Amino acid sequence: MKRNFTEWLKTFKSSICDYGYYVDFEKVYGNVDNIKVELNILNSLIGSKNIEKDFEKLIADYPKVLKCIPVLLAVRGREIYAIDGDGEYLFNFYKPNYSIKEYIMFMQKTGLFTLISERIINNLVDYVMGVEVGLDSNGRKNRGGHLMENLVEDYLIKAGLIKNETYFKEMKLTAIEKKWDIDLSGISNQGKAEKRFDFVVKKGRTIYGIETNFYAIGGSKLNETARSYKTIALEAKGIDGFAFVWFTDGCGWKSAKHNLEETFDVLDNIYCIADMENGIIQKLFD
User: Fold this and answer.
1) Could you tell me the pTM of the whole model?
2) Which pLDDT score, from 0 to 100, does residue 93 have?
3) How far apart are CA 199 and CA 116, in angstroms?
4) Assuming Cys at both sites, which of 80, 155, 213, 256 could form a disulfide with 222, CB separation 3.0 to 4.6 Å?
5) Three-state DSSP class for 60?
6) What is the rounded CA–CA span in Å between residue 156 and residue 207?
7) pLDDT averaged over the chain?
8) DSSP letter string over 168-203?
9) How many Cβ atoms are within 10 Å of 112's Cβ, its own excluded?
10) H or E segment at 271?
């Protein structure tokens, strides 16, 4: 019986965030620990009455302290670019490429000397801990993507499909072709595009290429994804022994429902979390 797209879309969830989604504290703690010694040395400048002179002496005695400067500005990496009326600079904080006077200028103009000398903060280790928490929020997008992968994988495990020779994660088309001697050039545009599936399951005579994603918010990416997967769905139909499966969910799709519906109409194996909760994986791979 043909499913009703509108009713199916109504079952989509607003979120699948677990407790670890918001902040990866282990990563935060590790990043702070890597520079804790240098930060504590830099703490000696807090409240300094002559911070330029004290900074110059400190860097001369402990040059490695420079490497913790970028994170004080919430910057990842070893270099920071800056431009002013005197020219443009690319400061390296691991291999100093300017004079100490120019690094003092950097500290002045970025406001870091004021932050430290006027006791606006009392402890740079605590300050960087907060900066790291803020920077880690940028990783939520990647963690969100993995949440759906993990959820689908849990259901695959429950269905007894996790076996060394029949189940693979992040497998490329070329690897699938080589392992099972199957021609997937119809999907790869005659070998010009390298597609990678989140999961690949071999059950009986059929190889299942599985994609997973969850979109809590809308955006142009959703329309692009729906169109791309519609193309794969149509291309896969002409390949004997191969099936394309897509597990997706999220209220973000409500802003891109027309493109999703077009894919829904041509892809029989498109499912949401409610489908998995109702046993679709067991039925699909039975």
Assistant:
1) 0.73
2) 97
3) 50
4) 256
5) helix
6) 15
7) 92
8) EEEEEHHHHHHHHT---TTTTTTTTS--EEEEEEEE
9) 18
10) strand 270-271
